[in-house]
Amino acid sequence: MITPDYYYIIVGGGLAGLQLALEIRKDIFFKGKKIAIIDPSEKSENDKTWCFWEKGEGKWDELVHKDWQQGKFISDSVEKNLDLAPYSYKMLRSIDFYEYAKAELQKDPDTYFIQDTITRIDEVTRTAIGEQRSYTATHFFDSRPPTAYKEDSGSAKIFQHFKGITIETVDDQFDPERFVMMDYRVKYNHSTCFTYVLPLSSKQALIEFTFFTPFLTEEKVYDEKLHEYIQKVLRIEDFKIVESETGVIPMTDYPFHRHHSRHITKIGTAGGWVKASSGYSFKNTERKVSRLLSNIKSGKRPEQHLTSKKFQQYDAIFLDVLEKRNDLGESLFTKFYTKNSIQNILRFLDEETKFSEEIRIMQSMFHPQFLKSFFNKL
Ligand SMILES: Cc1cc2nc3c(=O)[nH]c(=O)nc-3n(C[C@H](O)[C@H](O)[C@H](O)COP(=O)(O)OP(=O)(O)OC[C@H]3O[C@@H](n4cnc5c(N)ncnc54)[C@H](O)[C@@H]3O)c2cc1C
Fold this sequence. Notes:
Layout: E1 6-11, H1 15-26, E2 35-39, E3 49-55, E4 64-68, E5 70-74, E6 79-83, E7 87-93, H2 94-106, E8 111-115, E9 118-122, E10 127-130, E11 134-142, H3 148-151, E12 157-169, E13 178-183, E14 193-201, E15 204-213, H4 219-233, E16 239-252, E17 264-266, H5 282-297, H6 309-324, H7 329-339, H8 342-349, H9 355-364, H10 368-377
Helix pairs in contact: 1-2, 1-5, 6-10
Bound molecules: flavin-adenine dinucleotide (FAD).
Flavin-adenine dinucleotide (FAD) is lined by residues 11-17, 38-41, 48-52, 117-118, 143-145, 245, 247, 249, 268-269, 274, 279-282.
């Protein structure tokens, strides 16, 4: 039998691919195994700002750009301070992560970075077919952005889509110790949309206008809403834009697990690692990578027990509610953030709560649409 080019090939060197490669390289179990990370991009730009929460110190602290222990939730009816302790909300710039990961991985003689676009992975011949050439391996971890969910009529589909701009002001305008998780005061056609504010200093903040909707929109809509927020809500006239980012994150109960096969494991967004009801995946990726590698080491299939059926069901119901009644977003999130402690909310989103706590959280948000969506998703 011909020896494959690599032991593992990781298709896509973004968040999931690089976290997986870093953990493989740290683990003595995989010592001497050749791995390749194939990506068309050199990853030389800051294309994303990742935020996540965790208790106390964490493994990415050296890369963290800013963190907060205080937050705020604002809607038409309420303004609530969120005291996160013992949690911190941490922000990391993707460029810092890419550069760190590349520098670490390049130290290892058995890790190879390849710039190519993979068009197909052939399960039978265990070959990834690229635009430049083909590559063989014993197993593939594939994080190419998924597309199949878009055509699936049976799954709920909400898009978390947004534009963020980092602005600099002349005067002190922001409290650098308090970020805004959601501010519902700027609205768009009875849809679920809010502004998210990450203050970096008293004169600089990343401000994002975000939708959780079944539809996408044109860029000028985000621009109008961002300016409305800055000028009418924050009452800032004098500012300049120093950076911007846009994104579309699928929030769906699509069964991504269908696409795993014997020699191909889907990872990242393609593997369903984005929490369907929140769009967060940075910390989820860390947990799933760790589980996936311990599965391999104990002789199980890599993807085994990576997801909780119970929480998938909760997420599916919530997405169905938002899909059918997108106008309810503001009132549902207002109840969520005001009737529960922030610590319980974060534990719930981390899928660490007990059933009795989950019932209490669901009761706190109750609306008759939940019953309809429950039966719809049953
Ligand atoms: C702008 C933005 C901001 C976000 N902010 C947060 C946040 O604050 N917190 C959070 O938890 N989550 C956030 N997310 C969600 C999620 O964490 C990110 O989308 C994350 O990057 C997903 O990781 P991934 O590895 O699946 O995808 P990616 O990081 O996008 O990696 C996929 C990689 O595949 C490569 N690729 C694509 N096609 C091919 C091909 N044909 N062959 C080979 N390689 C290919 C791409 O170049 C890319 O490098 C954000 C998402 C976006 C878009």
